Structures are given as C-alpha cells and as structure tokens.
Amino acid sequence: MPMTATVLTARALLLDMDGTLVNSDAVVERCWRRWAERHRLDGDEVMKVVHGRQGHASMAVLLPDRPMEQNHADNARMLAEETADMDGVVEVPGAAAFLASLAGLPHALVTSADVALSTARMAAAGLRLPDLRITAESVSASKPDPEGFLKGAADLGVDPADCVVFEDSGAGIAAGRAAGMRVIGVGPRAGMHRPDVLVRDLTQVRVEATPEGTIRLHIG
Prior knowledge:
The chain is an alpha/beta fold. It has helices at 25-38, 43-50, 55-62, 68-83, 95-101, 115-124, 147-156, 170-178, 188-191; strands at residues 6-10, 12-15, 22-23, 90-91, 107-110, 133-134, 163-167, 182-186, 197-199, 205-209, 215-219.
C-alpha cells in the first residue's frame, strides 16, 4: 500500500503494544522457536500464527487436538519466560514521542500480553504506560476477537466507530475491523493484512488535539 498524506479524525485511540509501540520481535522469536522445537513444529510456520494473539490462543491453532487446560498451563510458563527476557526489547521508532503527544487525550493500551509482561516490556523500551490498559486479564477472548478493543472503547466512553486502532498483526487488524474501528497498520507485517492506512513506524504519525475535543491524526 503506497504511503500518501492522510488525515483521520477520532475521539479515542486504541494502541496495541508488541510490534506497534514496542519492538519485541527478538524475544518473541526466541521463546516461540524454542516452544516449536519442543513440540516438533516448524518454527517458521509457528511464527506466522503467534503475533497478536494470546499464547494459549496461538497454541490452540497450532495444536488443535490438545486440551485447552494444557494450553493455559503452557502459556503461563511462556509468559514467565518472556517476562524474564528483555534482551533486544526497544521502542518502535517514534513511539515515545507519539505517547507523549497523547497526554490528556483519550487513549488506551489494548494488548494480548498480561499485566506483568506489558509493564516489563514498556519499561524496557522506555515508554510511558497509558492510564487505561486492557490486558490478557481483562478479556475472555483473544484477538482476533474484538472484545479487547470494544472494552477499551467502552471504558473510555467512546463509540467504536469514533476509535482508531494502531496494530501490527493480522489478528489485531482483524480484531479492530470486527470492532467496527478504523485501523492504522504499523510496520511491514501489518502491510500484509490490508489496514485502512499503513505507516512504516510511528515517526509518520502526528497528533493534533482539536478545539472540538477530537484527535486529528496527520499520517505521512
């Protein structure tokens, strides 16, 4: 999708974390490729599935015959492993300035990570945590289910149609769409899933608060 100058207006922004604000690809690759090896699965095929989803939901796709209680137990171990490994976790270019520009404006973090992992990764990347955070503990269904984004909109008191989602993964973009929201895709992974607008990173987004109380996003 070619990058052209675009302006979107919203009342609230809903932000994914991994791949959108935080580049955690190195640790995600390490942990999931080890998991793939343990289960004799092709690591490349596993990596096509895991971005954006909660771990147990990825496992359910990859090991469809395994009982969900085993996936939940395995996911708890995976989360502990990921939370202990911050090597190579950095901000997506422009993320810190982007978050700073949202101070006082309606926005939320909507992540498939749990509280411990999201707190640790945002800190490792040097990023401010939004006041409102929808984490794995907040929802009953993982992306691509829209529950997390709909909960974020409801908690902010904003109609879903007035929200703009920032996402990098196919599961996340599908969740935003299913919630009836516009989606800005961040990075090359997002480009494969036809977001409404695609940016290389967050340096291509400028936030303007309007006198009417809306958020104007200048993209490009």
